[in-house]
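Researcher: Quick test of sequence recovery. C-alpha cells follow.
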C-alpha cells in the first residue's frame, strides 16, 4: 500500500515555515522556480565570520510539498556551512532521482518518501535547498 503524497505531517510543515520574512539587507538572495508547477522559493542569507549561516529569510510561494521542504530547510539551516548546504542539495537531488540508499542526512526529509514515485513533484521539493545552497555560495563570494 502506498503512503499518501499529502499527509498530515507534510501539511503541518507547510503551514509552519520558519523565517518567512525576507531579510532587509542580505549578503545574498536567490529565487528558484519550478517550471513544472510554477512554485517559487526565494532565500535570503547572511553568513557569519566562520562562513556559516547566521540569518535567513524566505518568501515561499509553492505547493504543499515545496512549502514543507522549505520549512524543513529553514528549521535546520542556521549554523550550516556552504559545503553542508551544497551536500544537502546534492543528496536530496540524488535521492529523489532514485540514487542512494535512503533519504539525505537532513532532519525530516524522509517525509518525502511517498513523493519519490511522483517525479513531477521533485522540482518543488528541491527549490528551497537549491536556493539556500546557491545563496550561501554567493554570500561567501561577497565576503
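Model:
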Amino acid at each position: 500500500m502506498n503512503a499518501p503524497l499529502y499527509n498530515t505531517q507534510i501539511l503541518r510543515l507547510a503551514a509552519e515555515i520558519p523565517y518567512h520574512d525576507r531579510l532587509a539587507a542580505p549578503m545574498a538572495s536567490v529565487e528558484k522556480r519550478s517550471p513544472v508547477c510554477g512554485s517559487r522559493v526565494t532565500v535570503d542569507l547572511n553568513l557569519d565570520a566562520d562562513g556559516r549561516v547566521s540569518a535567513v529569510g524566505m518568501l515561499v510561494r509553492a505547493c504543499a510539498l515545496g512549502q514543507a521542504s522549505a520549512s524543513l530547510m529553514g528549521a535546520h539551516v542556521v549554523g550550516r556551512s556552504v559545503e553542508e548546504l551544497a551536500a544537502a542539495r546534492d543528496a536530496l537531488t540524488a535521492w529523489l532521482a532514485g540514487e542512494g540508499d535512503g533519504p539525505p542526512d537532513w532532519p525530516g526529509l524522509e517525509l518525502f518518501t511517498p513523493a519519490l514515485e511522483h517525479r513531477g513533484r521533485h522540482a518543488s521539493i528541491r527549490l528551497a535547498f537549491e536556493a539556500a545552497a546557491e545563496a550561501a555560495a554567493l554570500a561567501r563570494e561577497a565576503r
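The mean pLDDT is 95.
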